[in-house]
Amino acid sequence: MPQPLAVVGISELVTLSGPPRARTGAEMGDLAIMRNGVLLVRDGRIEATGTRAEIESRITAEYEVIDAGGRVVLPGFVDAHTHTVFAGTRVDEFERRARGETYEQIAAAGGGIRSTVRKTRAASEDELFEAARARLKWFLRNGTTTIEIKSGYGLSLADELKMLRVIRHLNESGSLRTVPTFLGAHEIPDEFRGDRDGYERLIVNEMLPALTREKLACYCDTFCEPKIFPVESARRILTAARHAGLGLRIHADQLSRSGAVELASELRTATADHLEQTDSAGIETLLRGGVQPVLLPASAHTLGSKRFPPAREMIDRGLAVVLATDFNPGSSPTPSMPFVLSLASTQMHITPAQAITAATINAAYSLDLADSLGSLEPGKLADFAIHDCSDYREIAYHAGVEPAARVFIAGREVYSRS
């Protein structure tokens, strides 16, 4: 175990301590900040938090003392929706959209997800691992310590398993925590065009049993849209995944008001993600189903959409909102949670405090990890970042800046800007 740590000289120790559940309503604005705070870490976990006057007498010679230099300390961001394992880029499509083509037009012409599928299938497991491991450093530089990663760029039995093994290997490498999600129902692959039912059978009868045998995923997700996986197809896949012992997530209402929110409520999925097209009735449906919304404003931004998820109404109605990057090579090539926080404030009109709650403790609850992550409370894992600012609001305010000066996972430094 690493040496015990005492982090002192903290302008704002943002603990997020609070009730043992995801935060809703006014609770999302309460970050439980300790000014002139001290953080003690022992055996990789939070030992104590408090003001310097309360804690200083407990700092003995056995502690390594870290002076935060008047900076902010935050729990590590928990990014609950990413697609970090893939080959190649889609920078050509980025330029085509700038020239006026839509995401849907590019996808219909063989681009989009299927373009990345072809590149990912051609890459070896080692090549995918090395590319993804390099990307993990981008997350760390922004203060993120845990990411959910979806498969979904393989779309064949062998290639989906290859992706999930890479995600497991990334977690074992120790540089950043990963949570694996199976997204075989991301798109219809080229060899099954015109035969969605055949591909659905492949997912249910071959992919789910194989990944379950190898214990490669915690969750199953589907991209529920009428032209891709409509409600009935998504229901069959998610029901089979639940029978296989996986938790459920769903891409819902990104491109259309598709019925996906109603399916999420019916199945009581852990999350419904995207929700750009969701209306007041959809919000009420999510509330009835106890479903957490995962909002991805960087995706709407990159696609040039003028419609962002109705985050303000969701919070006012009592949903435990989550923010995530949706990092992927096509619609959201950003690993920056601070950029997402900025978009949440400027485009969805939620406060920086609410945004930080959505990217830490609420995100941890959406992944069933809140017992150990998402806040700086005694007994939890010591995943935290020292940010180069004196006021937590600067993290969202200075959009585009990588604010993390030092990042720790289980009390071990994994990134230092110097």
Description:
The chain is an alpha/beta fold. Helix content is 37%, strand content 22%. The protein is built from 16 helices and 15 strands. Strands 5-6-7-8-9-10-11-12 form an eight-stranded parallel sheet. A seven-stranded mixed sheet has the order 3-2-1-4-13-14-15. Strand 6, helix 6 (157-173) and strand 7 (177-185) form a beta-alpha-beta unit. Helix 6 (157-173) runs parallel beside helix 7, helix 9 (260-267) runs parallel beside helix 10 and helix 13 packs across helix 14 (352-359). The radius of gyration is 21 Å and the shape is globular. The model has no long low-confidence stretch (mean pLDDT 96).
CATH topology of the largest domain: TIM Barrel
Specify the structural class. Answer: alpha/beta
The main β sheet shows up as:
8 strands, parallel
- Per CATH, the architecture of the largest domain is Alpha-Beta Barrel
β-strand number: 15
Q: Describe the global form.
A: globular
Average pLDDT over all residues: 96
* Radius of gyration over all CA atoms, rounded: 21 Å
The stretches of 5 or more residues where confidence is low (pLDDT under 50) are none
Look at the structure and give the CATH class of the largest domain: Alpha Beta
Tally of individual helices: 16
Report how far the terminal alpha carbons are from each other.
24 Å
List the helices and strands and how they pair.
Blueprint: E1 5-14, E2 33-42, E3 45-51, H1 52-55, E4 64-75, E5 77-79, H2 91-98, H3 103-108, H4 113-122, H5 125-141, E6 144-150, H6 157-173, E7 177-185, H7 196-213, E8 219-222, H8 231-243, E9 247-252, H9 260-267, E10 271-274, H10 280-289, E11 292-295, H11 297-302, H12 311-317, E12 322-323, H13 337-347, H14 352-359, H15 361-366, E13 384-387, H16 394-397, E14 404-409, E15 412-416
Parallel strand pairs: 1-4, 5-6, 6-7, 7-8, 8-9, 9-10, 10-11, 11-12
Antiparallel strand pairs: 1-2, 2-3, 4-13, 13-14, 14-15
